[in-house]
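Progress against Task 2.4 (sequence-to-structure conversion) is shown through the following example record, which the project officer requested during the mid-term review.
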Amino acid sequence: MSQEGSIPLDREVEAQHRLVEEIAARKVRQEEILAALPEVVILLDEAFCIQYSNAAGEKLWGTNPADPSDCSICGLAVINFIHPEDRNRWTALLESVLSCDSTEKDKLLRVRGSGDEVVWMNTKICQLADGGVLCTLEDYTTRRRHETELTKSQRLESIGRLAGGLAHDFNNFLSIIMGNIDIAQIKLGSTDLVKSELEIAIKACMKASDITKQMLTFSKGGAPRTEIASIKDLVLEAAELNSHGSKLKINLEIDDSIPAVEVDVGQIHQVFGNLIINADQAMPGGGCLSIRVTHGSLSEESEKRGDRNAVIIEFEDHGCGIAEDEIDLVTDPYYTTKADGTGLGLSTAFWIIQRHHGRLSINSIVGQGTTVRIALPRSSKVLSDAKEPQHCATDRGEYRILIMDDNDQVREVLRMMLEALGHQVVDTSDGQQCVAEYQKAFTDDLVFDLVILDLTVPGGFGGRWAFQRLREINSQVCAIVASGYGNDSTLAAPEAFGFKDRLHKPFLISELENVIEKVLG
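Structure tokens generated for the chain above:
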């Protein structure tokens, strides 16, 4: 070999050194990439013991050593980290990969972390040429929770559509019953002959009305009618009202710097009341319920960013607790763990908080107790000390009132109630008749002081359509919307659609009187 065609020894050694350095640098880069991955990456030997784990695996199961080459979980059988109930699925996944079985397998598994927390993982497995097994585990916990919440919301919306229709018909019948009882009481005057019986009947109707209100919580019409309120005041009122006469001791821990919230006061009272009653029933022999009100975050993501954008209300009891497999079920309508329960308490609470753009979560251990955590968005508005004036109907006026309702009996009862209050009434059965009567009166310079419109007319023109036509005739028309149907946002915010107020069927003659005087008095 000539000297010109030969590579000097020092140049050959230099090339080898350079190659070793490139391989080492490439390995460092690979280690850095693996360490930066959020997914757990593990290499298993033929006995399915861990040969290698990236930083995510060490953080989940080990001690997260500073040197990536130090593996505190190497040599351990990976099946020890799999949740006992999912080990058969893990084994089936491994066998399908090793046997090249293309049948689709469930790849979602629960694994236990070093702190015994349970994490859902989406698992991918492949066999390497040397017989080893490469496995990646992607944290699916947050996504699974969001999917569960979405499924629950969709299910509740379906129930809500059904509930809204049922409540509409039920409330119409209650309106007929309650209205006639009210008229009967007025006609009987002060006689005690059947006074107590009629009062019992009215109370029973009001109880039935409360059930329809719970049903309507699941319908779109259950949207909150919000106002600025103090959570501290709401908690104090609910605690005093719902613990009266029980063996329950309530311990309150309320941060006085908590900001105001924008909520439907009636619905939030309902939520707090349901949770206090649940705690009382979970501790029949008596016990302590801790209610804590603090600053917090609406979501895990905002909590990580340090955003204190929510008011947190926690209800912690030390009762019987809820089994792990029932936690996701207790917020389903009509699912109950109590022999005498309705199954509406927690489901109503869950849906109301959802409608307030908040979050409700439940943690429970059987035999130790339950904690229900509510997060509500804080408001940037300031709570005003001014109270809305109360309207008194003692010196009431006598008004010309036009009413529209498609149900003959409901319309007749409403007419009798208004006439009993001294008003002149013209009644119509649908939107077109209502508009025609109003146009005639307006032309004759006999304008109606008030129009009461039924919101929904199946197969016909309802309240909103009629109201739009009335405003074309007279832009100053004064109207109230009345309905027992929940599937419309008009009931949640009637003022936004131009109505002066709303009447939610069924209503008593005293409620009707107060609303009229509030609007016209």
